[in-house]
Amino acid sequence: MTNTPINVDIVNEEIKKSELKDLGKATIREIVGLVNKIQEASKEKYIRMEMGSPSLAPPEVGVNGEIEALKRGVASDYPMVDGVKELKIEASRFIKNFVGIDLKPEGCVPTVGSMQGGYATFLLCGNIDPKKDTALFIDPGFPVQKQQFNVLNQKFESFDVYNYRGEALRDKLESFLSKGNINSIIYSNPNNPTWICFTEKELKIIGELATKYDVIVIEDLAYFAMDFRRDLFHPGKPPYQVSVANYTDNYVLLISASKAFSYAGQRIAVVAISDKLYNRPYPNLIKRFGSEKFGYTFVMRIIYALSSGVCHSTQYGMAAMLKAANDGKFNFIEEVKEYGKRAKIMKKMFVDAGFKIVYDKDIDVDIADGFYFTISYPGYSGGELVKELLYYGISAIALDDTGSLRTEGLRACVSQITEDQMPVLAKRLEAFKKDHSN
Ligand SMILES: Cc1ncc(COP(=O)(O)O)c(C=O)c1O
After folding, report:
1. How far is the CA of 17 from the centre of ligand 1 (A)?
2. Which CATH number belongs to the domain containing residue 81 in this structure?
3. Could you tell me if the CB of 188 is within 6 A of ligand 1?
4. Shared-domain flag, residues 321 and 194
5. Is 113 in the pocket of ligand 1 (CB under 6 A)?
6. 222 alpha carbon, distance to own chain's centre
7. Ligand 1 neighbour 142 (Cβ under 6 A)
């Protein structure tokens, strides 16, 4: 292993300096920092699969919407905490057009990314009922949301859904919900990190149980309409983005602009609270927040306290993108299909080099090609594989921190791997294969 694409001594030296004891437990940003250092020291560019930063250009319609708003002078005014009217109206239309659900503009509230939207929702759900002090994650999940729970000092439980797909999900969920301590169920769909996509049947189970046990479903649609197996760009017509909103009134949708609209840098999302939930009183909220209604408390107590709303011009940028999509003039899904193409090529390369796809099925069909996929290599734990791949100029995060029980796995993100890097990846995987075949 002396002739690896990246000098072994440099990699070892930088790992030692980083003081990261177990690369399997390192956060995304810690791996980013480590790889930046190795790149600097080795003068070699890595295949960066650790962070889901979009590499596509932001849509012109959004950028122009922001520029026009800035020229109108919005920068000097505080935006309304619940969002500018144009954005609320277009978000409500968007949900009707692409999810097939009626939701009033009132319940569409912009937040500083889904990160803030999730944080505010978790805080709110943790205070609706003193008996319900715990959230439930359907894992694997996005590690930073667990970090948010730690910051909030709120409790969560979780389970790895790998063995509980389809009808088996019902009993598993019920084993948690029947204890009476769960306030909310959280998952992303398509899923970060595995790209599993829940079926209508599974969402129906989640929705029915949410109603039965009166818990709130926080459906994280960070990868809105990015299950590319079906074309979901037909404004106002099915097929729609699948959603638990079809099966319960107890839902909050997190719709991020970061990935579906390549707008991560502007930090905006829309939190969509169902009409029923928005106006529902929870007397227990009065104690901590001084207000009773779910939606009002979300906006006027929590978002107000956290950031007093979202950057004014960015709201107009998002409103412009949603309007153009609603009017059928901007096929945002076509733009991001690029990720599916990359995943297909990259998955084949890894499999040909002896890797296995860890979460490989959606019940009985192959997992879709999208923003992420998961890989393992025989005989390696996740942490060991993160390290081993660093010698070959490839970086990724382990599944350890995602709530996955598949501790041998890694999450590979395709977003930063452009076409010109594919031959480099192929060459590095070839070297890996050569060094690892007996
Ligand atoms: C599942 C999930 N939720 C939330 C986020 C954060 O989204 P935002 O950039 O809107 O804060 C991400 C980003 O990677 C994600 O994967």
Report:
1. 30
2. 3.40.640.10
3. yes
4. yes
5. yes
6. 4
7. yes
Q: Among 326, 356, 387, identify where a domain stops.
A: 326
66, 24: one domain: no
**Ligand 1 centre from 222 Cα, in Å?**
5
**CB 117 near ligand 1, within 6 Å:** no
Alpha helices in 73-129 (DSSP H): 85-98, 113-125
The Å distance, Cα 268 to ligand 1 centre, comes to 10
pLDDT digits (tens, 9 = 90+) for 87-118: 999 999 999 999 999 999 999 999 999 999 99
If asked whether residues 420 and 286 sit together in one domain, one would say no
Q: Cα(115) to centroid of ligand 1, in Å?
A: 6
CA dist., res. 388 & res. 107, Å (int):
47
DSSP code, position 281: B
Helix axes 113-125 and 143-152, enclosed angle (nearest 10)? 50
Asked whether 119 lines ligand 1 (CB < 6 A), one says no
Is any ligand 1 atom within 6 A of the Cβ of residue 111?
A: no
> Tens of pLDDT along 283-331?
999 999 999 999 999 999 999 999 999 999 999 999 999 999 999 999 9
Buried b (16+ CB within 10 A) or exposed e, 221-247: bbbbbbbbeeebbebeeeebbbbbbeb
Q: Which domain holds residue 174?
A: 60-326
Determine the Cα angle at 94 with ends 318 and 90, to 5°: 50
